[in-house]
Amino acid sequence: MMNHSDKGNTHSNYGHNHNSDEKHSVDHSGHEQMFRRKFWWSLLLSVPVILYSPMIQQWLGFAMPEFAGSGWITPIFAVIVFFSGGLPFLRMAVPELKNRKPGMVMLIAMVGSAGIMVL
């Protein structure tokens, strides 16, 4: 296992020198609690998306009750999950894009955006 302090493999070699006076474009304070809360809400709101997904119902051999508007459950809840859980990633990706330094947040924002477009 390699250590970040190994010669030639420091964190700063990857463009992320956190010990310098260089300022980050995004303040990460409080993000852990925010993401933890959003994760649990997104998980809860994803249950109807999964249960009313025709493909999941076909694979697992069950059918959810149908009623007027039940066909809209999956897309509506998916959009709610995308915006409630994904909006912070979209907001934090903007500075990465402006600074031309894409990172993990940018990748997550792109994948989430592509996923919602397929819906």
Brief synopsis:
This protein is mainly alpha-helical and 119 residues long.
Protein described:
The chain is mainly α. The chain has 4 helices and no strands. It has helices at 31-51, 54-60, 73-98, 104-118. The longest helix is centred in the C-terminal third of the chain and has 26 residues, at 73-98. The N and C termini lie far apart (41 Å).
Strand/helix succession: HHHH
First-residue to last-residue Cα separation: 41 Å
Strand pairing plus helix content: what structural class?
mainly alpha
- Regions with pLDDT < 50 over 5+ consecutive residues? 1-18
Give average pLDDT, whole number.
78
How many β-strand runs?
A: 0
Helix content: 55-70%
Radius of gyration: 20 Å
List the topology elements.
Layout: H1 31-51, H2 54-60, H3 73-98, H4 104-118
Helix pairs in contact: 1-3, 3-4
Label this structure with key terms.
single chain; 119 residues; mainly alpha; disordered N terminus
